[in-house]
Design goal:
With 514 residues, this protein is an alpha+beta fold. 50% of the residues lie in helices and 18% in strands. It contains 17 helices and 17 strands. The strands form six sheets. Strands 5, 6, 13, 14 and 15 form a five-stranded antiparallel β-sheet that branches. The chain has a four-stranded antiparallel β-sheet with strand order 2-3-1-4, with helices on one face. Strands 7-12 form a two-stranded antiparallel sheet. Helix 2 packs across helix 4. 32% of the residues are buried.
């Protein structure tokens, strides 16, 4: 039973997660269009998102930010959403109604609106992501794959391998909001100055470049003070949008030469199609491409294990490697459960030392501590049964009950609680043996007489923990208490007296033989 309990998380029947999402939090919708998309297209997409979200009963209001970022929050601080700007980016702050006015938690609402938002994003050819505020340390994204290449390798090779990993993300069921840090190809035009014609016109390349910059981006040429305005207003000199929207319109931009004549731009050179250079990201002085994704109805641990299996089955090109334990939730989850496992081992060692000092024996503490691994027989199958019978589905997405870090803390706390039952039983046996009661009868009496107080104490602790199951963060701790106490109490009444009887009988037989 213990081996089966340990195998349940490995088989995916007990989903693991560091911490669940808080049911009181609002969330953010991030929309990214191709880099050459105009602001009007971004606004149109955000308006469609907003129109749908305002029809959801649990949503109180929606605030859109086109071409800029929403106010910085706890999550955006690490994911750098507050740095996004440009005509092709937009964000929607979704403010949920008060907890008393809605029956669903924020995570369930995010799952509910996801299919329709995905359809709207597909309509506008927009990369959409639903960003929930995590209760724990924020990460770059739930799932992050870092692709590194050989020293001196071209960045284009990294991009190609990142596309391969991205395809692996996309085909993994339950992985959503897949994206990379590679910028989309942004077409542009370069104006090549004909130096001979420019020299004949009396214009320099610097003058032509400055004039084009003024026409395209604009330049502040002064300030005006108005009585009705508290602050002075900048005077921005810029070519009209209709004229600068095409190379033909820009060709009609006139420059005045030293002789006072006006020379059109189209007579000073020609436009040539080109693409804008892409940003190169680095981490620890190495070039890197991040492939990111989120999960919907799937444990991040199971998703990462599946993605790791895909990489083993289809490795990257020689010289390239991928790291999943970098900026994502996987690294934090592994570290948290590793540290809690070390703390669990430390607690067991501390309990053993105290029992050795109390009993003056090295074997008796092991008998007493048998109740500790018995808690796992209750905790892991208990979470598996919860997900089997009580985990719901929202719009086709599973909404599992995770075994979280707080659940692990509950298991550590149980280690100090469940040994109490063993101590009570063994103390009862010793008390009757000192009175001359035979060993077998003393063992049987211990289970019969101490059954009621042990059971009532365990039930009191289990029902006391029931209220905590309503909390989204500490519910895992409460479920660990309930399932662990249930199993440990039931098994301890049988296993601990039986092991004690076997050891005591062997010692008596050895003493009689000597």
């Amino acid at each position: 039973l213990l081996l089966i309990s340990v195998a349940l998380p490995v088989l995916g029947l007990v989903p693991l997660k560091m911490l669940p999402f808080d049911n009181k939090s609002d969330f953010l919708v991030v929309a990214n269009q191709p880099n050459d998309a105009p602001l009007e297209a971004t606004q149109e997409a955000l308006q469609d998102f907003g129109r749908y979200l305002t029809t959801v009963h649990e949503v109180d209001s929606v605030v859109t930010f086109a071409g800029m970022s929403a106010p910085i929050d706890f999550n955006g601080l690490v994911r750098h959403y507050y740095l996004t700007e440009g005509s092709y980016v937009g964000q929607l702050r979704v403010n949920l109604a008060e907890k008393e006015r809605r029956a669903a938690a924020s995570h369930a609402i995010a799952l509910w609106v996801r299919p329709q938002l995905t359809e709207i994003a597909r309509k506008h050819e927009t990369r959409m992501g639903i960003v929930e505020v995590p209760p724990g340390p924020p990460t770059l994204q739930t799932l992050v794959g870092e692709i590194y290449g050989p020293p001196g390798g071209a960045y284009a090779g990294l991009i190609q391998q990142a596309e391969t990993v991205k395809e692996s993300f996309l085909k993994t069921a339950g992985v959503v909001d897949v994206d990379t840090t590679v910028e989309t190809t942004e077409p542009r035009f370069r104006f090549l100055v004909d130096r001979g014609k420019a020299a004949l016109s009396g214009l320099s390349e610097a003058q032509i470049a400055r004039g084009l910059a003024q026409a395209q981006a604009g330049e502040t040429v002064g300030r005006v003070h108005l009585d009705r305005e508290r602050l002075p207003l900048d005077i921005l000199l810029r070519w009209p949008a209709a004229r600068r929207a095409s190379t033909q319109g820009l060709g009609q931009l006139y420059f005045k030469n030293p002789g006072g004549s006006l020379v059109p731009l189209q007579e000073l050179g020609h436009f040539e199609p080109d693409t804008a250079p892409k940003a190169i990201m680095r981490k620890n002085l190495e070039r890197v491409v991040f492939v990111t994704g989120d999960t919907a109805g799937l444990s991040p641990v199971n998703a990462i294990l599946k993605l790791m299996g895909d990489v083993e089955a289809s490795p990257l090109a020689p010289g390239y490697r991928i790291n999943y334990a970098g900026e994502g939730e996987w690294k934090i989850t592994v570290q948290v459960f590793r540290d809690l496992g070390i703390a669990f081992a430390g607690a067991l060692i501390g309990i053993y030392i105290l029992l050795v000092l109390q009993t003056s024996s090295y074997t008796m503490p092991l008998v007493i501590m048998v109740a500790i691994p018995l808690t796992m027989i209750g905790v892991m199958p208990g979470f598996a049964l919860l997900n089997l019978f009580f985990a719901g589905k929202v719009q086709g997405y599973a909404d599992p009950i995770y075994f979280t870090a707080t659940a692990m803390i509950g298991m550590i706390a149980l280690a100090g609680i469940v040994v109490r039952n063993s101590i009570i039983l063994i103390d009862f046996i010793h008390h009757h043996l000192d009175r001359g009661v035979p060993l077998k009868e003393a063992v049987l009496r211990s289970g019969a007489v101490r059954f009621r107080p042990i059971l009532l104490t365990a039930l009191a602790a289990m029902f006391g923990s029931w209220v905590i199951t309503l909390d989204p963060i500490f519910s895992g701790l409460a479920w660990s208490f309930i399932f662990g106490l249930f199993a440990s109490t039931g098994f301890s009444l049988v296993v601990v007296p039986m092991i004690y009887y076997l050891l005591a009988s062997r010692n008596q037989a050895g003493a009689a033989g000597s």
